[in-house]
Prior knowledge:
- Helix content is 2%, strand content 48%.
- By secondary structure, it is mainly beta.
- The strands form 3 sheets. Strands 1, 2, 3, 4, 5, 6 and 7 form a 7-stranded mixed beta sheet that branches.
- The longest helix is centred in the last third of the chain and has 4 residues, at 191-194.
- It is globular and about 55 Å long.
Amino acid sequence: MPGRLITILLTALTMMATTACSDSGSDVPPRQLCESIVSFAGNSDGRAWFEYRQIDDSPLITLSTKGSLEDSRVKPGTRLRMRYTMPTGVDPGKGGEVEVIGLALTLSDTVKTVGALPDLLQPIELLTLQRSGDYLNLTAQLPTTGGRKVTVVTPSTPLPSDGIADLYLSTEIRQSATSYDTQSVASLWIGPVWNRDDVNGIRVHLNNSNNPYKSEFTFIKTNTNNPNN
């Protein structure tokens, strides 16, 4: 039924944001419960389509489900945190038809080139960080206040001799006396930097309040074709 999925678009999800599956243990026939950060690929043939890479440059996985998203509200390319089930025994890495339990918009940003870096990176309580194609996916403890953002910038200065581009993560948070921290998911498009022929990888810098000894992460290109998600 057209529009069927839009009713669960903003359903809150509390599981880990990286791709994960487990046996639901309650359905007959049994189904495995999965969660992934995906891109909405559009509606076609009465189905909603989604794409994602599990990690780094792993093959592009396509998922579909009966019904449609209201694409006037959810544009193709929108990054979503999706919770869904597949039949037990089916390899989640192969994709296919799924039953969607919940969808939620991720925090998102596109890397921007700036002439001057911020004097101070705002702290972020990082839980996980991984590359998925030309996206950086992360989970972090962030206040529930409205208007919160996770941002990523790169300096306009020439690349270092090793060809590793420097990216800087920060946050923009409106302080609120009534807010509390909750696990949040962000998916940041780094394609404008990652897909450059002269870039051999990226070095991500942040003010990690969860572990100050893990405030720099390096991702090296291993596939010269640089597949995109």
